[in-house]
Amino acid sequence: MKPPVLSFDLGGTKILAALVLNSRVEFRDYSLTHAEEGPQAVIEYIFKAIDRVLKESGLDITQLHSISIASAGAINTKNGIVTLSPNLPGWQNIPLAEKIQKKYPVSVFLLNDANAAAIAEHRYGAGRGTRHMIYITVSTGIGGGIIINNKIYEGASGGAGEIGHMSLDAKGPKCNCGNTGCMETLASGTALAKEAKRRIKGGEESLLSGMVKGKIEKITGKEIGEAAEKGDVVAIASINRIAGYLGVGLVSLVNIFNPEMIVIGGSVAKLGERLLSPARQIVRERAYPLHASAVKIVPAQLGDDAGIIGAAVYAMQQKPFKPPTAL
Amino acid sequence: MKPPVLSFDLGGTKILAALVLNSRVEFRDYSLTHAEEGPQAVIEYIFKAIDRVLKESGLDITQLHSISIASAGAINTKNGIVTLSPNLPGWQNIPLAEKIQKKYPVSVFLLNDANAAAIAEHRYGAGRGTRHMIYITVSTGIGGGIIINNKIYEGASGGAGEIGHMSLDAKGPKCNCGNTGCMETLASGTALAKEAKRRIKGGEESLLSGMVKGKIEKITGKEIGEAAEKGDVVAIASINRIAGYLGVGLVSLVNIFNPEMIVIGGSVAKLGERLLSPARQIVRERAYPLHASAVKIVPAQLGDDAGIIGAAVYAMQQKPFKPPTAL
Questions:
Q1: In the CATH hierarchy, which fold is given to the domain comprising A130-300?
Q2: Does A23 contact B at CB distance below 8 Å?
Q3: Which end of chain A is more exposed for a tag (fewer CB within 10 A), N or C?
């Protein structure tokens, strides 16, 4: 049997580790990131997860192909550095691959989490058989990954695919990233909840108020989806608003990339056709006909495993990694 | 000597034809498109240009490598069809390559004009030595071409690179393409002239009024550039406005593509640093630092020959073309 990859999905809230071989995932290990404790503490939690997975599986570190980490943020894949990660406070130019490789005698790879999910959806999920595909994850924020000629497109320094930070409104709201009117500020789960709260605070009646027992701040995409199913006007209008911005973002991507497929994942994508149908309609109405007729816009298929599966596929495609200053 | 390509640059106003071998251009032939006469008439003008270049050069059609046409519009490169071209009235699904090939026994290639210019700038111009490069032409409209791994990225049907039809303002002005707030409506030469006219009609004093002898409608980017050189406030403010939108568009492209270089060509790019400097500043301020530090934003170098040179390079890279229904 080929050696598996020990894959990580490192998010702002939780860490998922597992052994991955092709699309098979075993020995899943969930833990909390405790991002507020800072980079060094989080790295220690990663070490502990490595040790647990090895112990559970009975494997020795030398029996791994590699460790591969899908991380939120702007990742320099060339040298394994997290340059910036808005949901991981204090992570600026952290040489994560090197730090792991100093402790464990194994190749370590690092890539953006949405890029990893794009790779997985292309290889084993909704994008199978396409040559040019875009993956978008709509969740608390919005991330993306670009498949060109069947490979992840990384750009000059591994940062390509920051689709959530395409501006849809040059004079729009400020984004955490420093830009204005980013798709992330207008079409994410955060934007969805914000719109519903704004409407309720403005006096509109909604089932949502009762669902969170009046604690408006607790409204999330999940409640909005449930309320929309019951015909709640505030919920439906809020979804339509972010679907509209998502659609405008998709038009731009369709005109620029002329892709065969756009795959939409992430927690907000669980809204399903309520989100995708109006977005598709906007693409049909506004994108170039040549481009609109070429593209399918579909939901992702791999769910929460996409990041770890993609990280493993990515690692299998790379040359063994040696960070510049490794021991 | 290798056989040359008979290259065309087919625009809404004029047709440039020439023999091209690598970056050498000979027997340039300029004629008017007479786009208002419709596709069949324009195709006849193309035939006449072919005949003139062959006669002038003393070459026989069989001595050509191919005919290659850089055309404005959304081009299906797979089957040589102009699917839509806003500046060529009536051009909808015109099988241009096939029509030429029915008359001349030679391979015929067709691609978008900005894609051709991107290829040329990458091979022989400002983008030499880069691996991932974006070309933008800012002129009456805005077009683009994307170089990935040293090759033009064409997408599923040859339409990739419609950068001018990325929306910078989801609720912005309607674009000819059917979308709203496209970069083309906010940062093109047309947008520049419109802004200057708006200011003058609103009562602002400007040298521009005198330069066009009060005929405000005659103001173009050329006069605005000249007035800006003389310190004219309306001209400078108008340039700053489109530079601002150009900058916002560049931020999105930098975040999405993480390119090594963005090359800016087209007639409006002749404004030079007045346009590029504020746009670059916005990229430095708003794009991800990982991405902003990787990209150079520079003027194009090949001028009006970029389209025909790129069309020739493209033809040399293709397999001989047979449209599906050719004789």
A1: Nucleotidyltransferase; domain 5 (3.30.420)
A2: no
A3: N
Would you tell me how many other CB atoms lie within 10 Å of the CB of residue B117? 33
Task: Give domain B129-300's CATH architecture.
Answer: 2-Layer Sandwich (3.30)
Q: How far is A51 from chain B (nearest CA, A)?
A: 32
Q: What is the pTM of this model?
A: 0.94
Domain ranges for chain A, please list them: 5-116+305-317, 130-300
- Measured between alpha carbons, how far is residue A310 from residues A6, A306, A317, B248 in Å? 12, 6, 11, 31
Instruction: Give start and end residues of each alpha helix (H) in B91-211.
Output: 96-103, 113-124, 183-187, 189-201, 207-211
* Nearest chain A alpha carbon to B85: A288
Residue A259: list chain B partners with CB under 8 A.
155-156
Given B179, B180, B251, which is nearest A179 (Cβ)?
B251
pLDDT bin (cut points 50, 70, 90) of residue B85 is: confident
Nearest residue, CB atoms, B156 vs list A158, A170, A294: A294
Write the secondary structure of A185-225 as one string of H (helix), E (strand) and C (coil): HHHCHHHHHHHHHHHHHCCCCCHHHHHCCCCHHHCCHHHHH
- A interface mutation test: which of B76, B79, B290, B296 has the most A CBs within 10 A? B290
CA gap B248, A245 in Å, rounded? 17
State both tokens at B24: 């050498």
In whole angstroms, give the CA distance from residue B241 to residue B275: 10
| Tens-digit pLDDT profile for residues A175-197 | 988 899 999 999 999 999 999 99
Query: B5-116+305-317 sits in which CATH class?
Result: alpha beta
Q: Which of A83, A131, A165 lies at the smallest CB-CB distance from B255?
A: A165
State pLDDT tens for residues B254-267.
999 999 999 999 99
Across the interface, do A259 and B155 touch by the CB < 8 Å criterion? yes
Q: Name residues 288-317 of chain B within 8 A of A (Cβ).
A: 288-291, 294-295
